[in-house]
Design goal:
A hairpin with an 8-residue loop joins strand 1 and strand 2. The chain has 144 residues and is mostly helical. It is built from 6 helices and 3 strands. Strands 1-2-3 form a 3-stranded antiparallel β-sheet, with helices on one face.
């Protein structure tokens, strides 16, 4: 299973960009994270990702239409970590559970982020992706 086309385009854009442009792109994605709906304010029903240095919360649901709906919350003062949320939200919008589960675990290495940000941040991003996939599985993803 290939990753969703929107995410593949984002990966290619990052992988081919010079390091200084990668940092600008991360900042843009950090600003694109949509606000939480009222029912999730205060992180009700969200899971914290303790591997992140910054307080990071996520929720993944599978809609009745069979697509994955993602919600993220991370403080604006943590633009790199917040950018992970923006990248996943943009790249996985409208994706099926199978497509989300097919996202490679080394996503951020494929994007070339290991050369632009600290290994600790990359590990945090990888933990976000792992928890997101687990939530999709827990909510009936992959035909369960």
């Amino acid at each position: 299973m290939e990753m969703p086309e929107k995410l593949a385009v984002i990966v290619d854009e990052f992988a081919s960009a010079p390091r200084d442009v990668v940092l600008e792109m991360l900042l843009e994605y950090s600003e694109a994270v949509r606000p939480l709906p009222p029912e999730l304010e205060g992180h009700a029903g969200m899971e914290q990702v303790p591997e992140c240095q910054t307080p990071f919360f996520l929720k993944a649901d599978v809609t009745p239409q069979g697509t994955v709906e993602l919600f993220f919350d991370c403080p604006p003062e943590a633009p790199t970590t917040r950018a992970f949320a923006g990248i996943l939200a943009e790249g996985l919008e409208g994706a099926t559970p199978e497509q989300v589960l097919g996202v490679p675990a080394d996503l951020y290495q494929r994007m070339g982020l290991a050369q632009a940000i600290s290994p600790l941040r990359v590990r945090g991003g990888t933990a976000i992706l792992q928890r997101l996939k687990r939530q999709v599985l827990d909510h009936g993803g992959a035909g369960q």
